[in-house]
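Input structure tokens:
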């Protein structure tokens, strides 16, 4: 009887350990399979595919979106377990995510937990005016459009700056945005960046400049920006304008005339344009224009408040296509430089047209 009982106990113990070993083996097999799923590329999607997580999306909804992009890797249970294990299920960040087929499920979910969304770029070019900026914004994709039907005045009100002229108010640089953002979001950042840049330039201004405010510095910087694309020339051009302002001499700068002509400008400045008075004609009016005429960059802002020393009161393009200028102190020197410009310009055009 005792012997039979012992044999029964041994059988139970052996069976228990066999079942335990089987369970451990099954658990190891499942763990290995789960790890293999989590760390193998998802595949099955196009290289440019994306998935968007919107506000209110729970992980099952996101998983359905993943399947629609072509993700067939892993079971729904494996995805849910991994999302819970990585904390993604409770920490999904709204945004658009790139679906690179080389990504593993673990890497993809980590991106969604950390909010590493797909980003786009929009560049404001130095020297653009507000019309050019708004036209470029309308063509920016996938930026959501909120300002298309707004007038310039309505646009500035929407940005929180009612009554402010929009020209020159947005700093030229590259701005990053996501699919969920709008053109207003980009413009708010660009406006804040310009205010910061203008303030920094004004705080670092030379003490003897003929400017009374940061606003005047912005206006002058916009004129400098339109006069040259050569960075090292900007302080010299600023010096010419500063000396003219000090002695009450008209700035006589063509970009202001062009701005005054507006959208009807056809690429040519005629003598009548120089003599027709507008608020922006610096041939007929002394001093600065009433507003900026373009979006100046940081270098133009710095030049406006720290003009180069010298005696030059005039400058004219070299005429060889380099964009560089010749600076002169007297009108006689300037007239001679203009004559050389005309000769060089004709020769440059002749060479360009030669077969």
């Amino acid at each position: 009887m005792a012997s039979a009982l012992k044999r029964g106990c041994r059988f139970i113990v052996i069976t228990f350990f066999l079942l335990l070993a089987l369970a451990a083996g099954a658990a190891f097999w499942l763990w290995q399979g789960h790890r293999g799923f989590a760390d193998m590329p998802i595949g099955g999607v196009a290289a440019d595919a994306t998935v968007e997580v919107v506000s209110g999306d729970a992980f099952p909804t996101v998983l359905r979106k993943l399947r629609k992009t072509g993700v067939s890797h892993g079971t729904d249970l494996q995805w849910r377990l991994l999302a819970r294990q990585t904390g993604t299920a409770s920490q999904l960040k709204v945004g658009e995510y790139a679906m690179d087929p080389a990504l593993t499920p673990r890497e993809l979910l980590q991106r969604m937990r950390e909010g590493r969304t797909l980003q786009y770029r929009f560049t404001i070019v130095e020297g653009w005016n507000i019309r050019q900026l708004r036209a470029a914004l309308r063509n920016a994709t996938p930026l959501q459009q909120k300002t298309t039907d707004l007038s310039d005045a309505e646009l500035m009100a929407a940005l929180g700056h009612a009554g402010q002229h929009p020209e020159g108010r947005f700093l030229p640089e590259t701005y990053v945005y996501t699919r969920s953002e709008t053109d207003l979001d980009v413009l708010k950042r660009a406006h804040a960046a310009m205010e910061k840049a203008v303030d920094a330039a004004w705080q670092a201004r030379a003490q003897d400049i003929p400017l009374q405010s940061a606003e005047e510095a912005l206006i002058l910087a916009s004129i400098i920006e339109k006069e040259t694309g050569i960075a090292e020339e900007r302080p010299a051009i600023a010096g010419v304008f500063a000396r003219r302002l000090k002695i009450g001499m008209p700035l006589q700068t063509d970009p202001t005339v062009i701005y005054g002509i507006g959208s009807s400008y056809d690429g040519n400045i005629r003598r009548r344009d120089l003599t027709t008075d507008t608020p922006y004609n610096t041939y007929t009016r002394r001093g600065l224009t009433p507003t900026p005429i373009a979006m100046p960059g940081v270098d133009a802002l710095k030049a406006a408040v720290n003009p180069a020393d010298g005696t030059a009161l005039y400058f004219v393009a070299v005429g060889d296509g380099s964009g560089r200028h010749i600076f002169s102190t007297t009108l006689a020197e300037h007239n001679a430089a203009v004559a050389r410009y005309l000769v060089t310009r004709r020769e440059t055009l002749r060479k360009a047209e030669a077969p």
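Strands lie at 50-53, 95-98, 120-123, 174-177, 314-317, 325-328. Confidence is low (pLDDT under 50) at residues 21-34.
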